[in-house]
Amino acid sequence: MEEKRYLTFALTKGRLASRTLELLEQVGITCEEMKDKNSRKLVFVNEELKLKFFLAKGPDVPTYVEYGAADIGVTGKDELLEEGRRVYEVLDLGFGKCRMCVCGPAKARELLKHHEMIRVATKYPVIAKDYFYNQKFQTVDIIKLNGSVELGPIVGLSDVIVDIVETGGTLRENGLEVLEEICPLSARMIVNQVSMQMETERIKEIILRLRQKLS
Ligand code: PRP
User: Fold this and answer.
1) Ligand 1 center to residue 170 CA distance, Å?
2) In angstroms, rounded to a whole number, what is the distance separating the alpha carbons of residues 128 and 13?
3) Atom of ligand 1 nearest to the CA of 123
């Protein structure tokens, strides 16, 4: 019989990976090697199930999956929207829930109402552009930042920000608030388009088991 090929998972480093591994474990997909916190390995293997796992930065997960370096990936919906990669989004895993929002000081609410030319700081320029240009028909100046985006309105770089809000704690502690909600977000499972054709049975079985567990 022909040897099964490895199915490779790209997981998002950090909390999302831990939640994903917990969920996979509940449907019999385990990787003992990954539990060794002292390991410096980058790729972990379950020889018995012919599975491989690696950890990557969230925005890179759709890239690995589009190019086929991973068959399956798990990352946030925010990264999928921002990266716009050609992958199949197959499952909402229901954790990592948060919202993409326009936030700022209360006084910025007026600027959004009157379609004024405003400055928007964000880690997500594609999402911000789509929201303001295509949904609100408001021309804005988008400024890309790489983190601590809340600083934007505080130090006078921008009028508002487009950013992820989970508990709202960061906003509250910095005198900012949600002004408009763009979309809800959560962790999603994605699949490489060719893998879906070549490994249909194995991948569908994984999706099915996860779907049953999540329902
Ligand atoms: C994210 C996001 C907000 C914060 C929201 O930042 O960009 O800053 O979490 O969470 P909260 O509503 O629960 O306060 P992250 O911690 O990923 O760091 P970053 O600012 O460097 O992007």
Assistant:
1) 7
2) 24
3) 22
Banded model confidence at residue 150, pLDDT cuts 50, 70, 90: very high
Q: Cα of 199 to ligand 1 centre, how many Å?
A: 37
Q: Are 162 and 122 in contact (CB under 8 A)?
A: yes
Q: 54 with 48: CB under 8 angstroms? A: no
Say which CATH architecture domain 98-184 belongs to: 3-Layer(aba) Sandwich (3.40)
Fold for 7-96+186-214, please state it.
D-Maltodextrin-Binding Protein; domain 2 (3.40.190)
Residue 143 pLDDT grade (very low, low, confident, very high; cuts 50, 70, 90): very high
Give tens-digit pLDDT for 71-107. Answer: 999 999 999 999 999 999 999 999 999 999 999 999 9
